[in-house]
């Protein structure tokens, strides 16, 4: 991580927050470049940042610009990446070294965002949903690298679960194998991204942000990997 940190560029807002021990929340950039059309993608990215600021934290959108990992983007950088869209390479753990060495732009997925957030000292990362085990995995071996990253990188990922097109029971089994504490906020069932309940029982349930934070803190104190906090989408928005 030391080598990566030396290659990294951090925004002034994020650097000041970390130096002052203020809460910082990491955000991915794949949704900006590959999830929505322009200009909706830029508008949404900026709105999410403002929601985080209004709650008293500092947003740190993460991306690679010209081969340099950035933790915290300016409005101009968000606008540029949003306009470039699918021209920007999607970057997971596998692609980080290639994109950095090639000095091109990269939109970070969950796994790459976790790696760069950890390198920067950011401990919490919010995203829409994580990848998982695909249906038919017995023949395809299609398993998202997000799951392995959660087992090895000590960052708390907060999301709305995994998409229902994935194999949710197998995804939770894989996370158990990786030793990842999986907590669902406020209900017993694990959410499935677009819907509040997948019908699959969550390994753990927490009733408050304080309880979730206590688990995340204990995981860090024990020197273990990441944690996953699933927050169900409000039922009126399903």
UniProtKB/TrEMBL annotation:
Q: Which GO terms describe its molecular function?
A: hydrolase activity, acting on glycosyl bonds; metal ion binding; pseudouridylate synthase activity
Question: What are the alphabetically sorted keywords of the record?
Answer: Glycosidase, Hydrolase, Lyase, Manganese, Metal-binding
Top-rank taxon? Eukaryota
Look up keyword Acyltransferase and say if it applies. Answer: no
One of the record's GO cellular component terms: cytoplasm
A Pfam family annotated for this chain is: Indigoidine_A
InterPro entries associated with the record: Indigdn_synthA-like, PsuG
* PANTHER family recorded: CARBOHYDRATE KINASE PFKB DOMAIN-CONTAINING PROTEIN, ZGC:136858
Name used for this protein in its record = Pseudouridine-5'-phosphate glycosidase
From which organism does this entry originate? Chloropicon roscoffensis
């Amino acid at each position: 991580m030391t080598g990566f940190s030396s290659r990294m560029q951090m925004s002034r807002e994020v650097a000041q927050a970390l130096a002052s021990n203020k809460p910082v929340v990491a955000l991915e950039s794949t949704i900006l470049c590959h999830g929505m059309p322009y200009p909706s993608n830029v508008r949404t990215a900026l709105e999410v940042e403002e929601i985080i600021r209004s709650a008293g934290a500092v947003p740190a959108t993460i991306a690679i610009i010209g081969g340099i990992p950035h933790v915290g983007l300016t409005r101009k950088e968000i606008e540029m990446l949003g306009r470039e869209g699918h021209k920007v390479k999607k970057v997971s753990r596998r692609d980080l070294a290639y994109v950095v060495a090639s000095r091109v732009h990269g939109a970070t997925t969950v796994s790459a965002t976790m790696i760069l957030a950890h390198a920067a000292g950011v401990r919490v990362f919010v995203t829409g949903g994580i990848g998982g085990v695909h249906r038919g995995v017995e023949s395809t071996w299609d398993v998202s690298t997000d799951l392995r990253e959660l087992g090895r990188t000590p960052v708390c990922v907060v999301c709305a679960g995994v998409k229902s097109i994935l194999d949710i029971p197998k995804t939770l089994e894989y996370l158990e194998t990786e030793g990842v504490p999986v907590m669902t906020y406020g209900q017993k069932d694990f959410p499935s991204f677009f819907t509040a309940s997948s019908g699959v029982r969550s390994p753990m349930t927490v009733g408050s942000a304080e309880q979730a934070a206590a688990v995340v803190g204990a995981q860090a104190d024990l020197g273990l990997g990441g944690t996953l906090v699933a927050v169900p989408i409000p039922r009126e928005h399903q």
